[in-house]
Specification:
- The chain is built from 9 helices and 3 strands; from the N terminus they run ααβααββααααα.
- It is mostly helical and 304 residues long.
- A 3-stranded antiparallel sheet has the order 1-3-2.
- A hairpin with an 8-residue loop joins β2 (70-74) and β3.
């Protein structure tokens, strides 16, 4: 245990480490040796100090390695803890009271959100901290009195009713740039689109004209563009043809395999019933092979 290294880690500023990284570093320093600065804290102990999961704890330790605050000496394995060296680039000094005062003054003077900071605007002084519950009750009563008098922050929500005359946000009268009333010749009612002039009750399929398919179902006396009910539209016809083609191909493959198995079965039956014929056929095959090898075209035959 190294109290000195743990105190050094505890006093690191916020712009160097986050809160989770500081807790992990303090645990690693707590298990370190004062002379060698080697530490074997164990992943479970670091997780218990930080209060995060295993993957998040590994990420935090990796961030500490990237910042140069620790370095891995030995990688942890199953049944063996990892070994770290704390502050490999040098142990920082513990800040004095004056250093802490300067750090906090700079932090208090800096804006909470730098993106919304406005130069030249003085920040309001912080309110006096409440000492007892009576201070909090008195502050709440003061806020209620301010709201009743129309001062301070109003209640959050949407405005109720129309604004007063002095608070009108829209100028009286109609805005300029818009036509006044209905245009000439307008019936003043809801506009409607003209009815379809097509012969078919429904539009044809999108790919009917491009693919050269008939516009409508030929199985009906009256042409119909969509026949999903009887499944005779062009899309269903193409799908049915594809299914029939695939089924015919599978049937031909099954017939071929059945015929092949039947031929093999007949050959095995012949070999069992007439073994002398099989032996005679094998003898003829050997003689033909020997004659082909000893023929004039064979390179190993003697020259005459």
């Amino acid at each position: 245990m190294s109290i000195h290294l743990m105190l050094v880690a505890a006093y690191l500023p916020d712009d160097v480490v986050t809160q989770s990284q500081k807790l992990a570093l303090m645990k690693i320093c707590d298990s370190a040796d004062d002379e060698t600065r080697l530490s074997k804290p164990g992943m479970k102990r670091v997780r218990a100090w930080v209060g995060v999961g295993e993957k998040r704890c590994t990420t935090i330790v990796t961030d500490l390695v990237a910042k140069g605050l620790i370095e891995r000496v030995e990688v942890g394995m199953l049944g063996r803890r990892a070994v770290y060296r704390v502050f490999p680039l040098g142990v920082p000094a513990i800040p004095s009271t004056d250093d802490l005062d300067a750090r906090f003054q700079a932090a208090d003077a800096a804006p909470k959100n730098p993106r919304l900071a406005r130069p030249g605007v003085a920040r309001a002084a912080p309110s006096k901290p409440a000492m007892t519950h009576e201070d909090i009750d008195a502050r709440a009563d003061l806020d209620a009195m301010s709201l009743a008098a129309g001062e301070g922050v109003k209640e959050a929500g949407f405005p109720r009713g129309n604004p007063d005359d002095d608070q009108s946000r829209v100028p009286p009268g109609e805005p300029k740039g818009f036509p006044q009333g209905n245009p000439k010749g307008s019936p003043g009612g809801t506009p409607s689109f003209p009815s379809s002039t097509g012969v078919l009750p429904f539009p044809p399929t999108p790919a009917a004209g491009a693919a050269g398919e008939p516009r409508g179902c030929p199985k009906h006396s009256t042409p119909a563009a969509s026949c999903r009910g009887c499944k005779t539209n062009p899309r269903s016809a193409r799908a049915a043809r594809d299914r029939d083609r695939a089924e015919a191909e599978r049937q031909s493959q099954r017939e071929f395999m059945d015929n092949w198995h039947a031929d093999q079965a007949r050959a095995r039956q012949v070999a069992q019933d007439r073994p002398q014929d099989v032996e005679a056929a094998r003898l003829l095959a050997r003689q033909a092979h020997r004659a082909a090898r000893e023929g004039p075209g064979d390179a190993r035959s003697p020259k005459k």
